[in-house]
Amino acid sequence: MRFVRFNGVGIVGFAVQIGALVTLMRMGMPYLPATAIAVELSILNNFLWHERWTWQDRPASGRARLLRLVRFHALNGVVSLGGNLLIVSTLVDESGTSPVVANVVAVLACGILNFFGADQVVFVSRGSSNLTATGDRGSASRGLQRAARRESRRITLPASTGPLQASQRLTRR
């Protein structure tokens, strides 16, 4: 369900981005600065909606909320802004693609990376940072339990112990 909400917010953010891009270009702004501003507006829009709807079960306030915005902005700065500018400039300059079509391609290419980054890095709730992308706490805690069991089975052997003695010691446990 979270992925569906993420994409719903993404569609609204995409509309914000394309609307801002077209408006800024009609006002005479070159396509790359217009793309950067449009992406920034979309990032801020998406943060607000993701916080209030997509990841509403992981609330934050005060300093934690500000740090979340910084993480979201950093992630989206690298993925969305960097990815959009790279893809858009390549498509427009190298193949003559329209800036609007190039933005569509860039948004689709960057979207999946943004979801997993937001889920695992940005909207992390205290004490449960290993939630799955779908918000399923059960499978995440099962994974943690398996890792703990593996760790508890790990044995430190003296350096002088040979392979045969080590395997005999392990089978006796």
Provide a compact summary of the structure.
The protein has 173 residues and is mainly alpha-helical. It is built from 6 helices and no strands.
Can you count the helices? 6
Spell out the helices and strands N to C: HHHHHH
Structural class: mainly alpha
What is the strand tally?
A: 0
The overall number of domains is 1
Instruction: Summarize model confidence as the mean pLDDT.
Output: 79
Largest sheet: none
| Molecular shape | elongated
Beginning-to-end CA distance, first to last residue: 44 Å
Per DSSP, what share of the residues sits in E-state strands of 2 or more residues? Answer: under 5%
- Given as residue ranges, the uncertain stretches (5+ residues, pLDDT < 50) are 128-144, 150-173
Estimate percent helicity. over 70%
Give the C-alpha Rg: 23 Å
